[in-house]
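Posting for a labmate who doesn't have an account.
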Amino acid sequence: MPDPRTFGKLLQLAALTPTDHVLDVACGTGSSAVVLGTLGESVVALEQDADPVRTAPEPIPARRGATVRVGEGGPSRGG
């Protein structure tokens, strides 16, 4: 996750609404997904390295009615 100030600016630029669905790629331990879960309707957070995923909080705190899922996954190769 970038430093908090940069992350905050990115969130402002994204202008997320409570009905938005968010894909968080390279989420690490899910810290960014926690923040995103307070803004959007759903968050799918992916991390290629299994170790940080194992340390992600379960369940991820989110805005009431929102869902946040953190899982292991990376870019797939297209043909």
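Reply:
Got it, the structure tokens are right above this. The CA atoms of residues 19 and 74 lie 25 Å apart.
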